[in-house]
Design goal:
two-stranded antiparallel sheet; 421 residues; nine-stranded parallel β-sheet; alpha/beta
Length: 421
C-alpha cells in the first residue's frame, strides 16, 4: 500500500493451480504448453528456447522499417512516431473473441498499416468463457485478456505488420484486473525481455485529477521498468461503454481544459517521459448517434499542445500523444482534424460490433432456405445443409464484414498503406 493505493497481488493468470493454456507460437507451428501453477510460469526448456528464437525472427522489418509482429518498448515508440510524422492514426479495436481478433489482423494486412488490438474488462471475461464468473479478483478478465494476447502473439508476425497489444478502460474499482495484467507482464518480461502487452489504460477520470495522477504515477513507475506504456484519461467520454454509463454527464465535463492536460503531461513526464498517452475529452461520446447529436471540438487538443509547448519552452509542436475515444460515428473531417493535433490512436468498438452482426445477418438472409434444418433445402428433401450451418461459414461472413468496416476506418484515419509512407 502506498498513500492509500493498494496493489492487489491475490491473483496472476500464471498462478491458478488447475488451469492450463495451450497456445501456438510462431508461424512454424511451435507449441508451448503453459502450466498455470505455483508462483512461476513453467514452460518446457525447449519451448522457451524456441519462443526466444521466435522473438528474434519477429524482429524482421515491415515496410517503413518498422518491426512486424507485436511491438513493445522502442519498437512501439517507432510506430507512434511514424504515425505522428506521417499524419495518420492507428485504429484500436475492442476484441471479445478470436473471430474479431482475426478480422483485425486481416484488415491490418490488407491496409498495410499498424493495428491496435485491445481488450476491455468485459471483453476479457467473455474471452475466458462465460461459464467462468468474473469475481471481484477479476480472474476471468485477466485470464481472457492473457489468452487473447497469446493468440495474437502466435499469429501477428505471420501478418507482416506492426501489432500493438493494449487493454481498455480500467476504473478504480477494477484495479485488481490491472494488477493481474501487470503481474502477467512482469513474468513474461522475465522470460522474454519484453512485456506481454504493449500498453494498458487506466481510466480514473471519475476521480479527482489529483488522485488520478497519484495512482497513475505509481503504476507508470512500475510499468516503465518493463517497457510497458500507459494511457490515461481525463475529463469524461460520454455515452456508455463496457458497463460504465456517462449518458447523463454534465456537458462541461465532456471538454478538457489546456491547464488540466498540462498538469497530466508534467506529472507523468517526471516519472517516465514519453511513455504515456492521454485520452482527453473534446466532446467525444461512446456509442453511435444520429448526425448532429455529438458536438466534437478537436481544436481543444490543438490549444492544449500550444499551451504545453509555450509553458515548457519546447521545440515540438505536438508534445502530447493524444487518444480519440468514442470514435464510432464521427465524421472524417473531425477525425482528420484531431489527427492534425496529435491524435495517434482512435478507439473503434460500436461500429465493429455492428459489422460482426451485419455479416451474420446478411449470411442468414442469403442462405435462409438452407438453414431451417440439418437436412432438406430447395435442392431436395434429402439434401444436407452442413456446409451452410457450419460455424466457420457464418463467422467468416462476420469477419469479412468487419474487415470491410475496418478498411473504411483506415481510410478515415488517413492510414491506408501507411507503411509505405
Amino acid at each position: 500500500t502506498h498513500r492509500g493505493v493498494t496493489f492487489h497481488r491475490t491473483y496472476s493468470p500464471f498462478h491458478h493451480s488447475r488451469a492450463t493454456m495451450a497456445f501456438a507460437v510462431s508461424t512454424q507451428a511451435l507449441a508451448a504448453k503453459v502450466a498455470l501453477s505455483g508462483k512461476t510460469l513453467n514452460v518446457r526448456k525447449n519451448a522457451a528456447k524456441a519462443v526466444r528464437n521466435t522473438s528474434v525472427r519477429a524482429a524482421v522489418s515491415a515496410p517503413a522499417g518498422l518491426k512486424a509482429g507485436v511491438v513493445t518498448g522502442e519498437d512501439y515508440k517507432a510506430v507512434v512516431d511514424h504515425a505522428i510524422k506521417n499524419g495518420y492514426a492507428i485504429p484500436a479495436v475492442n476484441c471479445t473473441m478470436s473471430t474479431v481478433t482475426n478480422a483485425c489482423l486481416e484488415a491490418a494486412k490488407k491496409a498495410n498499416s499498424p493495428m491496435i488490438i485491445q481488450f476491455s474488462n468485459g471483453g476479457g471475461a467473455y474471452n475466458a468463457g462465460k461459464g467462468w464468473k468474473n469475481e471481484k479478483d477479476q480472474k476471468a478478465a485477466v485470464m481472457g485478456c492473457v489468452a487473447g494476447a497469446l493468440h495474437v502473439r502466435a499469429l501477428a508476425e505471420f501478418y507482416g505488420v506492426p501489432i500493438i497489444l493494449h487493454t481498455d478502460h480500467c476504473a478504480k474499482s477494477l484495479l485488481p484486473w490491472f494488477d493481474g495484467l501487470l503481474e502477467a507482464n512482469e513474468e513474461y518480461f522475465a522470460k522474454h525481455g519484453e512485456p506481454l502487452f504493449t500498453s494498458h489504460m487506466l481510466d480514473l477520470s471519475e476521480e479527482s485529477i489529483e488522485e488520478n495522477m497519484e495512482i497513475s504515477k505509481k503504476y507508470l513507475e512500475r510499468m516503465s521498468k518493463i517497457n510497458c506504456f500507459l494511457e490515461v484519461e481525463i475529463g469524461i467520454t460520454g455515452g456508455e461503454e463496457d458497463g460504465v454509463d456517462n449518458t447523463d454527464v454534465a456537458q462541461e465535463d465532456l471538454y478538457s481544459k489546456p491547464e488540466e492536460i498540462h498538469q497530466v503531461y508534467t506529472e507523468l513526464n517526471t516519472v517516465a517521459p514519453g511513455m504515456f498517452s492521454v485520452a482527453a475529452a473534446f466532446g467525444n461520446v461512446h456509442g453511435v448517434y444520429s448526425p448532429g447529436n455529438v458536438k466534437l471540438t478537436p481544436s481543444i487538443l490543438g490549444k492544449a499542445q500550444e499551451y504545453i509547448k509555450e509553458k515548457e519552452g519546447l521545440d515540438t509542436d505536438k508534445p502530447v500523444n493524444f487518444v480519440f475515444h468514442g470514435g464510432s460515428g464521427s465524421s472524417r473531417e473531425d477525425i482528420r482534424e484531431a489527427i492534425g493535433y496529435g491524435v495517434m490512436k482512435m478507439n473503434i468498438d460500436t461500429n465493429t460490433q455492428w459489422s460482426m452482426w451485419d455479416g451474420v445477418k446478411g449470411y442468414v438472409e442469403k442462405n435462409k432456405d438452407y438453414l431451417q434444418g440439418q437436412i432438406g433445402n430447395p435442392e431436395g428433401p434429402e439434401k444436407p445443409n452442413k456446409k451452410y450451418y457450419d460455424p466457420r461459414m457464418w463467422t467468416r461472413a462476420a469477419e469479412e464484414s468487419t474487415v470491410a468496416r475496418l478498411l473504411g476506418a483506415y481510410e478515415d484515419l488517413n492510414a491506408i498503406d501507411a507503411l509505405s509512407k
